[in-house]
Design brief:
Blueprint (H helix, E strand, L loop, with lengths): L7 H15 L7 E2 L7 E4 L2 E5 L12 H14 L15 H12 L3 E4 L2 H12 L5 E5 L4 H8 L8 E4 L4 H11 L6 E6 L11 H10 L3 E6 L14 H6 L6 E6 L9 E5 L2 H9 L3 H4 L5 H14 L3 H21 L13 E7 L1 H13 L2 E2 L1 E3 L9 E6 L6 H21 L4 H7 L17 E5 L7 H8 L7 H10 L11 E8 L5 E13 L6 H11 L7 E7 L9 E3 L6 H19 L3 E7 L6 H6 L3 E12 L6 H7 L2 H11 L6 E6 L4 H17 L11 H8 L3 E8 L6 E10 L3 E9 L9 H16 L3 E6 L2 H6 L3 E11 L3 H9 L4
Parallel strand pairs: 3-12, 5-6, 5-7, 7-8, 8-9, 18-20
Antiparallel strand pairs: 1-2, 2-3, 4-10, 9-10, 11-14, 13-14, 15-16, 16-17, 17-18, 17-19, 20-27, 21-26, 21-27, 22-23, 23-24, 24-25
Cofactor: pyridoxal 5'-phosphate
InterPro entries: Acyl_CoA_acyltransferase, Aminotransferase_I/II_large, AON_synthase_class-II, PyrdxlP-dep_Trfase, PyrdxlP-dep_Trfase_major, PyrdxlP-dep_Trfase_small
Keywords: Transferase
Length: 801
């Protein structure tokens, strides 16, 4: 398999957002000349607004508007000075009012993102460690990454997984100073909570434990003086807690606020906190609006506003409770999430609701895993009960319709979110297609398989028979693979789609950067299966190429594609695999849009290389067909070395030779962290040696003929393609003998000698292969993960090692 290229994550996000934008559910522009908060205009249509984060509706409060206008008249549109020098005249009043709200010293920041960038590097010392909840807001994660330059370890745990948190605490309690756990108070997608009281109990057991809570979604609508969910749970703010709130969103103005009860920590942050020192301060209008909001918060009025919102939240919960809609987390926050599973279902559902007059938000990658796409609905004081009820009725009507439109059903949605399936389901569509899943290639008709998938890689019928034997009955679980063969036929028994998949153990960092894999390999010296997961993959880690026969022109071709994806989803559920991987697609594939709609992300693999030997009579003929530049490469970098070693093609190796080539293959694999996989079982080489379809191109030392310098392990597929599947090399002689280049040359020479019209050179080392005449093609894989934890964990590790 392949690495994700370094820039690929952002490319992937761009492609996902572009897909959603094209579906008309993202990057929209509001219309109209004024806002009431209750409705919002989109593309000329007035919609009821269920997407705001201004839960109390204070952004429309006349007192805040009046204060902002007066501040502009008095002080201008901005106060263009750093707060380190002098603050706007209104700042002191605002700081006093916010301090009164919290009852603790506070720091006001331009916004929460800049606040995190200023506070986290100031609060965390070089001998501390940071542990992130993997659903903590991106702005916190991004600020924490700044600590890597100071070699502060950054760890990550699964969402609200306190046992995992305790394991990390134990790991660092004797080697580090403070152990910071960073989390949200209310999480912005599902509206669920941090287990604040349980965390405080953990802190009593481990005094080093400190907390950094981003509670911007918990502000105003709950707690004493509207100071948020976390402080409401804590009662008092301990010295081991830093608490972030917001002056925007529900507060109705702009800016963010840090509350801190530790005097020395407060002084350290306040005196010099990066962006807190150098960034422009809040505009006078924002400071005045925040001041007006603060006055509401420190008055009894705030509790009346909270109660009004609570009544609407309770009403929405009551309306949802009598439906079978997949509400992901029932709680008392104003944030609700209705799962749709696949992105295309989410697009359809959002568009249907907008068509009925309701504006809602789409939850999509990277905020949630792609197959956990859904609709995020927020309730505010602007919403009236009649439109809340109407929204639920519209969702109850349109959810099954969205499932039907996108050829899915509710069970798949509930499974995607690991919820108990309810009665709601989409239509059961009868099909002329039959889907068969076989456990072994012996159950598949040989000629039919070879006609569809033969002549590629090591997965003609005999090749798969060989692989089944190799990856079965081995001591290590990483060496035992389950093979499944999917055959989809029409009513006449004619194959429309055929492929094979494997269920096997992969290293989670196989798609990570080399330095990350190197660090993880250190952990694996004591825990061999650290960060490894069961993966369902098209093809297998031993094979490369177009692993699927698909008759796209067949009348039922598109339906067969959907059937395959449904079948893979069932296999994933049955096996408990963490990821599904569809590999080796070309750059231009008609599968791209459907796979994005089904929750797959595209990542670029190393380029694939092949050599066309049709009408090539000899090696001399082949060399003459090379470009002048490649012929110069041959004369300079290959030809002078050909006489330095002896080349032998062996159909079978002696026992001592077999031990040597095993060792040489091990040398290559141990150095290839750019393609970090588990080793292959020892039985692989013995079975190769016994199989007539395998042979070995061996480079031997002239001085010591018994010493093997390099070997190419080659498979002959139906005499249609020659497959140099793996290489082994003595790295001590790599440059002296140009071992790799010699082996590439000898492989081409051997295939010509056998009269085989094509070589599948596979992935990686495209630069060297291209110089010897190989055709290079971009290849892509599509990944569908159950959650984003591993992707985010590996992202956090970038730059630490």
């Amino acid at each position: 398999m392949a690495k994700i290229k370094h820039h690929n994550f952002l490319n992937t996000v761009h492609e996902v957002f572009t897909d959603a934008k094209n579906a008309g559910v993202l990057h929209l522009y509001a219309g109209g000349t004024s806002f009431s908060g209750r409705t919002i205009e989109v593309e000329g249509k007035e919609l009821y607004h269920f997407g705001t984060t201004g839960y109390l509706g204070l952004e429309q409060d006349p007192r805040l508007k009046k204060a902002a206008k007066e501040a502009i008249d008095s002080y201008g549109t901005q106060f263009p000075l750093s707060k380190s020098y002098i603050s706007n005249p209104l700042y002191e009043q605002l700081e006093g009012a916010i301090s009164e709200m919290y009852g603790y010293p506070i720091v006001i920041t331009k916004n929460s993102t800049l606040g995190h960038l200023g506070v986290i590097p100031s609060a965390v010392d070089d001998d501390d460690v940071v542990i992130l909840d993997h659903q903590v807001h991106w702005s916190v994660q991004n600020a924490a990454k700044m600590l890597k330059t100071r070699s502060v370890p950054i760890e990550m745990i699964r969402h609200n997984h306190l046992e995992m948190l305790e394991d990390k605490i134990k790991k660092y309690r004797h080697s580090k100073g403070r152990i910071w756990y960073m989390a949200d108070g209310i999480y912005s997608m599902y509206g669920d909570y941090a287990p604040v009281k349980e965390l405080m109990g953990l802190a009593k057991e481990y005094p080093q434990l400190h907390f950094y809570f981003d509670d911007v979604h918990g502000m105003s609508w709950v707690g004493r003086n509207g100071t948020g969910y976390v402080l409401d749970q804590l009662g008092e703010l301990p010295e081991n807690v830093l608490l972030f709130g917001t002056l925007s969103k529900t507060f109705g103005a702009s800016g963010a606020v840090l509350a801190c009860s530790n005097a020395s920590m407060y002084d350290k942050i306040k005196t010099f906190g990066g962006p807190l020192t150098f960034s422009a301060q809040l505009e006078p209008a924002s400071v005045a609006a925040a001041m007006a909001s603060a006055q509401i918060h420190i008055s009894p009025e705030i509790y009346g506003l909270q109660q009004e919102l609570r009544e609407r939240i309770d009403y929405f919960n009551d309306c949802l409770s009598i439906t079978d809609l997949p509400l992901i987390d029932r709680n008392e926050s104003p944030v609700f999430y209705i799962g749709t599973g696949m992105p295309k279902t989410g697009y359809n559902f959002v568009n249907r609701l907008m068509g009925e007059g309701f504006f809602v938000n789409l939850g999509i990658f990277p905020a949630v895993p792609v197959k956990n796409t859904g609709v995020r609905i927020t309730i505010s004081r602007h919403n009236q009960k009649e439109e809340i009820k109407a929204l639920v009725e519209a969702m109850e009507y349109h959810f099954p319709k969205a499932l039907e439109d996108t050829q899915t059903d509710a069970q798949r949605v509930f499974h995607a979110f690991k919820m108990e399936p309810k009665t709601l389901s989409g239509p059961k569509v009868s099909s002329e297609l039959t889907v068969e899943v076989f456990d072994t290639i012996d159950q598949v008709e040989k000629e039919e398989w070879n006609q569809s998938l033969g002549g590629q890689g090591v997965y003609d019928w005999d090749g798969l028979k060989f692989l089944e034997e190799v990856f079965h009955g081995n001591p290590g679980k990483e060496h035992n693979w389950l093979f499944r063969y999917v055959v989809i036929k029409d009513a006449d028994g004619i194959p429309v789609l055929m492929t094979f998949v494997t269920l096997s153990l992969w290293k989670d960092d196989m798609l990570a950067q080399t330095q990350i894999s190197a660090a993880i390999e250190e952990e694996r010296k004591t825990d061999p299966y650290h960060l490894s997961s069961t993966v369902l993959s098209l093809g297998c880690l031993f094979t490369e190429g177009d692993h699927m026969y698909w008759n796209a022109s067949h009348a039922l071709g598109m339906e067969a594609r959907n059937k395959l994806l449904e079948t893979l989803e069932k296999l994933e559920l049955q096996s408990g695999s963490k990821m599904t991987v569809l590999r080796d697609f070309g750059e231009q594939t008609s599968w791209n849009e459907p796979l994005y709609g089904q929750g797959f992300l595209r990542v670029q693999m190393p380029n694939s290389c092949s050599v066309d030997l049709r009408e090539v009579d000899s090696m001399e003929d082949y060399l003459q067909r090379l470009s002048s530049r490649n012929r110069r490469h041959f004369r300079k970098d290959v030809q002078p070395y050909l006489d330095r070693a002896k080349t032998i093609v062996l159909p079978k190796l002696s026992k001592s030779e077999l031990e040597q080539v095993k060792s040489l293959f091990g040398e290559v694999q141990s150095r290839n962290l750019g393609l970090n996989t588990f080793s292959f079982p020892d039985s692989l080489f013995e079975k190769m040696n016994e199989n007539h379809l395998w042979e070995f191109i061996v480079l031997c030392s002239l001085d010591k003929p018994e010493k093997i310098l390099g070997v190419m392990f080659c498979y002959t597929n139906l005499n249609q393609v020659y497959v140099p599947a793996f290489v082994g090399m003595d790295y001590d002689g790599l440059e002296e003998f140009a071992i790799y280049r010699q082996l590439l040359y000898r492989t081409i020479e051997r295939a010509i000698g056998l009269g085989i019209p094509k070589i599948d050179f596979g992935l990686t080392a495209a630069f060297e292969k291209r110089k010897l005449g190989a055709t290079v093609e971009k290849k892509y894989a599509y990944l569908q993960t159950n959650d984003n934890f591993i992707l985010e964990l590996l992202g956090i590790m970038e730059g630490q090692h």
